[in-house]
Specification:
Layout: H1 2-22, H2 37-44, H3 48-72, H4 82-102, H5 109-118, H6 131-152, H7 157-180, H8 226-234, H9 240-250, H10 273-279, E1 306-310, E2 314-318, E3 326-329, E4 336-340, E5 346-353, E6 355-359, E7 362-371, E8 374-378, E9 381-387, E10 393-397, E11 400-405, E12 414-418, E13 421-429, E14 434-439, E15 444-449, E16 454-459
Parallel strand pairs: 2-4, 3-5, 4-6, 5-7, 6-8, 7-9, 8-10, 9-11, 10-12, 11-13
Antiparallel strand pairs: 1-2, 13-14, 15-16
Helix pairs in contact: 1-2, 4-5, 5-6, 6-7
Region (Disordered): 191-243
Subcellular location: Cell membrane
Membrane topology: Peripheral membrane protein
Length: 463
């Protein structure tokens, strides 16, 4: 009996504890272990005053927050409000840079630097109208340290996987932004409104853990296949008598050819050139009077030039024409310069800059002082680039005609080329400031080495 009374008391204590837990909201934080069943009951029981708050106030707050999001949520802020809204991201970037500097001369400093230079890509939400090139700029700034990681840990597959995973993040982000936010972050102009759907279509139920699928497209117009029906009806046989006549003609056998007309020599075109001349279509046919003129090619609309610092990080220089006095003052060496669709212009970059990218430009010259990572030239024609100070790397891609002027401090720069032609490097020689020109090879010769069992590539004799 004494054992039975003890069991009953323990069951009662467990029941009280379960009832207290049923009124408690779930929490992700682990609870400290109790020493006994009674202590557990005392420590985890919720006071009635807390229960009353949850029941009476929490639902009201939830309803209020929902209405707030419908009134002011997802509305695009004014340009004057944007710096204040971006301040949390800017502060986090500053903390990351301070953390990077604290890890200088450590084993994984290049890893941390790669992330610190590329993480500002999250600020694409404030870039308009081309956020995708901005993401690429941040990746280029990060690649200087990424290549160092690849070189220092060439034999370690773990670090190579880390590098690939880091670059895939930018690739996925660029793909997402290009698909859904091509010209900038898309805002909801009518908060709380739902996208229009077809009058007859029913919305599909939302799956757990993800957004609802898009609504089905509207039904096609009623007369969409009218022309097909008309053509099919026209192709039907006129009557059963025509079908009977066809089968009776087939049943004649060889006698069916008796009704054919004989082709005489006067009817044969290969014996009468006059027939061939009359059957040809004239080369130039004048358009009939009153016929509509063919549509002219759409004229290319030229956009106004723009010189702007985006997100305190990237200088954008685009759409300049016939301007020889473009100047960019760099006050922070972490800043980058992106030159886009400029023609017959000259740009001078003053100060130490992280990287310079020249994209889709023609007959344009870019002069800069000191460069931390690289200058990239892509999809350009007749470009001149001059370095007055340090320059570690030059990348030339899909470019026809490129002159690179090196200084004494950048004479050991690495030059990487692909799918390009008419490239020359000019190296200073002598105190008079003269340059010696060297062409970059465009043709290569590749042979298979049987002994080494690999391909060997050398520069062709024709340069």
């Amino acid at each position: 009996m004494e054992n039975l009374d003890g069991i009953v008391k323990r069951l009662e204590a467990a029941t009280v504890r379960l009832e207290a837990l049923s009124h408690q909201k779930p929490s992700l934080a682990p609870k400290p272990a109790a020493t006994s069943g009674t202590a557990n009951h005392v420590s985890e029981e919720i006071p009635s005053i807390v229960k009353q708050y949850d029941e009476q106030i929490e639902d009201l707050l939830l309803n209020f927050f929902t209405l707030c999001s419908k009134i002011g949520g997802q509305k695009e802020p004014d340009a004057s409000q944007l710096p204040a809204k971006m301040e949390p991201i800017i502060k986090l970037n500053e903390e990351i840079l301070r953390f990077k500097e604290s890890k200088r001369n450590t084993q994984f400093f290049n890893h941390i630097s790669a992330m610190a230079e590329g993480i500002p890509a999250v600020a694409w939400i404030s870039v308009k109208p081309t956020p995708v090139p901005y993401i690429k700029e941040m990746l280029d700034a990060s690649m200087f340290f990424v290549n160092r990681v690849r070189k220092d840990f060439k034999a370690d597959q773990l670090h190579q996987d880390w590098v690939n995973a880091w670059c895939e993040i930018f690739s996925g982000l660029s793909k997402y932004v290009k698909q859904y936010h091509t010209t900038g972050l898309v805002w909801n102009s009518a908060p709380g409104a739902t996208p229009p759907t077809s009058a007859t279509a029913k919305p599909a139920p939302a799956s757990k853990g993800g957004p609802a699928p898009p609504p089905p497209p509207p039904p096609p117009p009623a007369d969409l296949f009218a022309d097909l029906k008309a053509s099919s009806s026209a192709s039907k046989p006129a009557s059963d008598s025509d079908r009977q006549a066809l089968f009776s003609a087939i049943n004649k056998g060889e006698a069916i050819t008796s009704s054919l007309k004989k082709v005489t020599s006067e009817m044969q075109t290969h014996k009468n050139p006059g027939l061939r001349a009359g059957a040809t279509v004239p080369a130039n046919v004048a358009p009939a009077k009153g016929a509509p003129a063919p549509a002219r090619a759409q004229q290319v609309v030229s956009k106004p030039p723009r010189l702007e610092l985006e997100n305190f990080k990237n200088w954008v220089v685009e759409n300049y024409r016939d301007n020889k006095n473009i100047v960019v003052e760099i006050n922070d060496m972490k800043q980058t310069v992106y030159v886009y669709k400029c023609e017959n212009s000259v740009l001078q970059v003053k100060g130490k800059v992280n990287s310079v990218t020249i994209d889709s430009c023609k007959k344009t010259s870019v002069v800069f002082e000191n460069l931390l990572s690289q200058v990239e030239i892509i999809n350009c024609q007749s470009i001149e680039v001059q370095s007055l100070g340090a320059l570690p790397t030059i990348s030339i891609q899909k470019t026809d005609g490129c002159q690179v002027y090196l200084s004494k401090d950048s004479i050991s720069a690495e030059i990487v080329t692909s799918k390009s032609s008419e490239m020359n490097v000019l190296v200073p020689s002598g105190p008079d400031g003269d340059f010696v020109e060297f062409p970059i090879p465009e043709q290569f010769k590749t042979v298979y080495n049987v002994g080494k069992k690999k391909l060997e590539t050398t520069v062709s004799d024709i340069v």
